[in-house]
Amino acid sequence: MSTDTLRDLLVDTGATVRFAVPLAELTTLRVGGPATVAYCASTEALVATVRALDSAGVAALIVAGGSNLLIGDAGFDGVVVKVANEGVEIGADGVVAEAGASWDAVVAATVAAGFGGLECLSGIPGSAGATPVQNVGAYGVEVAGLLRRVRLLDRADGTIRWVDPAELGFGYRTSVLKHRDDAVVLAVDFALDPSGHSAPLRYGELARALDAADGDTRPAAAVRAEVLRLRAGKGMVLDDADHDTWSAGSFFTNPVVSADRAERVRAAITAHVGEVTIPTYPDPDGVKFSAGWLIERAGFAKGFPGGSARATLSTKHTLALTNRGGASAEELVALARTVRDGVAERFGVLLEPEPVTVGITL
Hints:
Layout: H1 3-10, E1 16-22, E2 34-40, H2 43-56, E3 60-63, E4 69-71, E5 79-83, E6 88-90, E7 94-98, H3 103-112, E8 137-138, E9 141-142, E10 147-154, E11 160-163, E12 183-191, H4 204-209, H5 220-233, E13 256-257, H6 259-273, E14 280-283, E15 286-289, H7 291-297, E16 311-313, E17 321-323, H8 329-347, E18 356-358
Parallel strand pairs: 2-5, 3-5, 4-18
Antiparallel strand pairs: 1-2, 6-7, 7-12, 8-9, 10-11, 10-12, 13-15, 14-15, 16-17
């Protein structure tokens, strides 16, 4: 479709349209080729833009914070809809955030207002609307445990409605909204604790740092500060000057294997690295292993492969793939394949990528 035709199509939607935008500008990995981008600063513009593109049969890619997205070097042949509605409303016992609101800004606002609940999810890059899509979680807390409802645009019939969490099929770092494009998140609604206490502390590293026992609570502001400190030490808080944060966060999910297969994995680890303490966690589907631990024990150290490589593992955390400046999507994919295949060869565990890929496959 010509640029003039696209302009005419979107002229009344309220979106601002730019052409040949490098999508690297819209992702925290800072890779991705060119595309036409429609910037939607309001929910009304977002809805109108998506409806117009769908009615005209134009492919649309919905992008908000871009923190969980790996876009190919060829870009996107269609229109990228940039979600930029940023409204946040804190009520007596909850917060409603529009999809384009910065997630950490939402968390910060709730803590500053004296509420608890979201503090363990501090410092996570991206938008509020993306959090239910992949059931964002950190330090023992998941979005699924706090979410009250999600406002969705159904692209099949153009209707808008609030959806209960029970309809979203939450799992570990996933939901029915992930890897599908027939619905667009417009807003999210989370329950908060008006007492200002944190969620029960279940993550050992965080609890120890706060001198807390498992299940204890602490003031939300204190927990937020400690979470930000811990994440920054792992290169997991965005910083333009720190290439370790030019990433999509944790690139692989922690693998869950059945209980009987877990014994074979443990045996493979012992055969490869000797008798060691293997960090594992109970899971309803079996045993959860630490992806970062497996990557490092498979021989992929922090900063791998080093040298002049433009795509490397983080120098602070082996679970993050990073852009050292000028990396291409192909270079990041090649690194991801090397790490994934190496772990599979040594331990018999296939790591699954967490980011959504566009125009590229692993």
